[in-house]
# Entry
Amino acid sequence: MAVKIFAVLKNSACAKNGIRPGDRLVSINGNEINDVLDYRFYSDSDKIKAVFEHRNGTLKSFVFHGRNGADKLGLAFETYLMDKQRRCKNSCIFCFIDQLPRGLRKSLYFKDDDSRLSFLFGNYITLTNLTDKDVDRIIKMHISPINASVHTMNPELRVKMMKNPAAGSSLAYLKRFSDAGIAINAQLVLCPGINDGEELKYSLCKLSELSSLRSVAAVPVGLTKYREGLYPLEAFNEDGAAEVIDIIDSFNDELKKQGRDKLAYPSDEFFQLAKRDIPEYSYYGDFPQLDNGVGMIACLDKEFSDALDESEVDNRERRFAVATGVAAFDIMKSVAERFCKKFTSSEIKVYCIRNSFFGESVTVSGLITGTDLISSLKEQGFEGEYLFIPSVMLKSKSEPIFLDDVSVSQVEDALNTKVIVASCDAYSLFDSFYNT
# Structure
């Protein structure tokens, strides 16, 4: 297979050899190029022999020297993956996308399950889209880690939960990856009465048999108010959430007795549902599942305090507000109070935004719509020159729009304020506060 070249960087090695948009990249060092993984892996060499197919069908071969890999070639392709993104083949009973209402932007309804995105961006994959050839390639390239949405290690239960006959047998790929030394991060989306309790104990036990297992994150199923006609699921109550935490802590205690490191972590939401204090910073080790909502509060708390301790006091006046979701409200209120205690001329007001669009059981900041943000702040009497919002509320830096396609500028107009988009990283957040 050859991949079509969309653009060639000016003054790059390929440009100097006459490669142009519309030509095709056939192979590198004798290896067929099918996608971005092939391209990156095989171009990471001191000597690159690349074969191209000219637009008129003739083949050209060039040898490039010097170790800069793909950057040296200077090629760009129509899509980042070089072909179409792979769609999920499952119909999971807990799928969040199935719970979205109509009318949102089209891209939100796409269910990706692409192993390449796991390696490139940390996405979690279910393994059901993989073939033996895919697994062989991953092992050959030794691309690590792989992030796997496991949910349960019981093959029969996995088939029922994911409604895919291949869901059970694909668990065998985990053993192949482990035997090849590919690090594994596992995710368990827990549903009360289905894969928690004894099933959770079983899954943790079986996962711990994988020698390359790096971590396991347990997260509670997310339920919106748009579940008409879907599998009947319930949210975790206080007792159920507490049981999950206890099972995981007991599992880690047993590992410690065996001289092994901690592997499993409940997400922050489980502690909030159980009405328990968030653990200390040390509980999370090197924070292997931070992007999965595991340890985010403890990390923000500790690192913001460190940044605060390292700063010098001034008397500059700062007046602004912060909007956040229910889950992060307490920690954001805490860091704001600590900031104002040190910088006594500052005043920060933190607003809690409840999710009317998806339902109030959805508490994370990343799922707050622009409409909810505007209406909630108006209801709370917001007035202010500056309003901080976390970057996770928006699609991207280049496309600053909310899930409902409301733009940042529309929020500014509706609230007569200047919106400042703040990173969720503690040090960046402190810098944003400090420099306002």
Summary: The longest strand covers residues 213-220. The chain has three domains: 3-77, 97-291, 300-435. The radius of gyration is 25 Å. The mean pLDDT is 90.
